[in-house]
Amino acid sequence: MNADLMRSPLADYHASQGATLAEYHGVIVPSRFTSPFQEHLAVRAAAGIFDFSFRAKFALTGRDAAKFLHRIVSNDIKSVSVGGGTYAALLNPQGKILADLRVYAAQDRLLVDTDADLRFKATETLRRYIIGDQVQVEPLDTCALAFEGPNAPGLLEKTLHEDLPAMKEFDHFATNFAGFPVRVVRMSNTGEEGYELWAAPKAMMGLWGAACGQAPSYGMLPCGTEALESLRIEAGIPRYGSELGEDTLPLEANLMNALSFNKGCYIGQEIVERTRSRGHVNWKLAGVIVESAQPPAPGEKLTIDGNEIGEVTSACVSPTLQKTIALAYLRREHLEPGTQLRTASGRAAEVTTLPFYHAAASVPGKITTNPS
Q: What are the CA-CA distances from residue 127 to residues 138, 248, 268 (Å)?
């Protein structure tokens, strides 16, 4: 492994427990603990806990913080209340995605969460746009654990010895654990009910141990990034570096929840508005079911009658559906569900709607799938 890569503060402990470590978004974290297949199914049926050290945080402080970020990113920041948050994209002037961001309003600052390998680009880009604004952009030494699955709320309450309030996606609150400040964030990364715990690196071992100590009662398994990948593909969640990048327009990636069409100007806004007013994009993210036991590789072309009409971005054998599924960009003329395709290697494939999987609302243990 590259010695220059960042490591989870729990990396050595995970390895001592038999976990396989690998790089994910520039950070060494567990890729699997036992079987990614079983880890995946545990999240769908009960609960899983993930080391989210591959996510990085930074803060915007100063009296102009909200006003400044509002005029830079793609979503409405000024209307976000303390204890709430939103999803947004940092775009270049051509409307392409430099980074996708989760923005949370705290009492005296904005907290921004993104992939670890995007934090430097995001913070440096924001700093370049500061002109006379009373705002500071500073990285935070904060790590996270993710609790995912229908039993995640109960597991989290038992871990913290605290009842959770009613929370919607992006809601968050500050509390403490064993004397350490902790932030609880409602956020799904798998399509299931999900929460994140943010805390200093030195608090991670205690939080991880407390959660794992409750595992038998909640059907929880520790999970790695291989399971996270298959879970997020089933849920149709795009990932930067796979579905998102500096060649991607937000509307191509279906990022409607990252856009405000009422807030006025921001970097890249003219391109986004022009694309919307035109009524379509030439390429769009879609789901594809592939008739093969072997997932197509990222970048594999998709064809109709020998003509290239799309490209795979992520693929897996779905433990839930027991089918090979893929996220892919397709030309807009071929987005109709049921459209028959072929991979470049000759395997039959069919377009379907996203997400592949819909969580059963508040029914632990029940798995609901997207019919194909």
A: 10, 23, 17
Q: Predicted confidence band at 18 (pLDDT cuts at 50, 70, 90)?
A: very high
Q: What is the pLDDT of residues 24-82, one digit of tens each?
A: 999 999 999 999 999 999 999 999 999 999 999 999 999 999 999 999 999 999 999 99
Query: pLDDT band at residue 358, thresholds of 50, 70 and 90?
Result: very high
